[in-house]
Amino acid sequence: MDKNTININKLPSKTWYWLHMNDTKVSWNPEIAPCKVTVEETFEDKETNSLISGDAAEFATVESGAGREADPIFADVQTEKTVLTALDKDAKATIRLAVDGTTAGSAAGACYLTAEEGTDTTIIETFTKKSEQAGSLAYRTMIQAKKDSRVRLVQVFMQDEEQTLLNDIGCVCNENAKFDILQIFIGKGDLYNGIRTDLKGTGADTQVEIGYLGQKTQKIDVNLIINHFGKKTNCEIQVDGTLKDAAEKVFRGTIDFKNGASESTGAETENVLLLGDDVINKTIPIILCAEEDVEGSHGATIGELDEETLFYFESRGIDKETAEDIMTRGKFEMLYRHIGDEQTQKLVEAQLAEVMADDREEL
Description:
The chain is about 15% helix and about 50% strand. It is mainly beta.
């Protein structure tokens, strides 16, 4: 069947068209079925049976990073939905979702979480491909963080080489709400990743950490948008990645200080290690400002291993290829130590070893 083409990951403010970074065109199989999701809930500090169910319709006004153009993929009849509400301030909840495709065409799923006032919730989503017939996978995570709530989202992408994954996130943070994201991409297939967070309440805060490894001919396309609406809001973005062989990566990082967001701060940094002659790296950090009393910064470090580092390894009998592997592992080790979940950390360690071993076999 012919695939549909959709435009996703649009920049809020367009740049030069010849850069081919204003958006991304993705071909998607219209034969979409609900994906498979296994849900596990655990709680700290208090005996609680479960989070209560919620209503996905309440998220209609929450915008996502991929954009409204992706909405048809997540139509009700073809999407596996997990809708939850965190109510208990005394019960720190951890929700684990193992997400997998189910058909040879494409599959879709979504998680909706309402974090009520003062609650503390962690969501851990792992994306794998266990079925040999599984095709492309789309997953959307939508969050409403109410006053003084804390939501932490951990996503680990481990899809196989022939599977394309579209990941889409939308979050609204109210007064003093905090939303943290940790993403680790150690899959073998292409990844399209959209993130949008609206800091609407005074004192709202978001922290974003992203780590990626691109190999062979992988494509990694990221659109990250942080909108500062409320006063004294803050965001910090840290992106670290390695590109090898002929991998291609696009990173769009936008911090937008809206009118009324006085005394707000935002910072974004990206570090990219280039380890292939044919890699393609595109980075476009953007700061938009409609308010005077704000503070924003961005920076990027992009390059190969320097001669001093290589000499250090060579003086200890370590060749260039092994040195590259050590540096790549080091980036991820610092990142996955932040997961805070032993089960997930072991999963990441095993997947990283497999991915790097596969790449070494290709040499």
